[in-house]
């Protein structure tokens, strides 16, 4: 039996993080979560995510910069941006997941992840 793919979630709102963790677990992912980009980046040598779900409005390093570093470090990782900001201001990603996040929208967003 193969291991579950890993999802990286970078979200500073604990309720949103919990919601994303639950939905991603139901979709078959193990989840590594970080409350800020710095914590996520420090874990890069120890993780290999198939999926990354990133908030844009983070304390410290921005979600946009974190997205760039995820792309650079994990070029095969499926990148999803989740934010309250207008979708037109999202950096280039594989999928957009505007907040508030709904389970059906998350399922659609991660449908393209290579598992």
From TrEMBL:
Xref: Pfam families: Response_reg (PF00072)
InterPro entries: Bact_response_regulator, CheY-like_superfamily, Sig_transdc_resp-reg_receiver
Response regulatory domain boundaries: 6-114
Record PROSITE patterns: RESPONSE_REGULATORY
SMART domains xrefs: REC
Highest taxon listed in the record's lineage: Bacteria
Alphabetical UniProt keywords: Phosphoprotein
Residues recorded with modification 4-aspartylphosphate: 55
Transmembrane residue ranges: none
Protein's recorded name: Response regulator
Native organism: Microbacterium galbinum
Taxonomic lineage of the native organism: Bacteria, Bacillati, Actinomycetota, Actinomycetes, Micrococcales
């Amino acid at each position: 039996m193969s291991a579950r793919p890993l999802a990286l979630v970078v979200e500073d709102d604990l309720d949103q993080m919990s919601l994303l963790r639950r939905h991603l677990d139901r979709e078959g992912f193990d989840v590594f979560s970080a409350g800020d980009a710095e914590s996520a980046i420090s874990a890069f040598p120890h993780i290999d995510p198939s999926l990354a779900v990133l908030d844009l409005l983070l304390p410290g390093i921005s979600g946009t910069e974190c997205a760039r570093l995820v792309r650079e470090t994990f070029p095969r990782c499926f990148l999803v941006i989740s934010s309250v900001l207008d979708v037109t201001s999202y950096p280039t990603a594989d999928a957009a997941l505007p907040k508030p996040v709904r389970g059906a929208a998350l399922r659609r967003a991660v449908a393209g992840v290579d598992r």
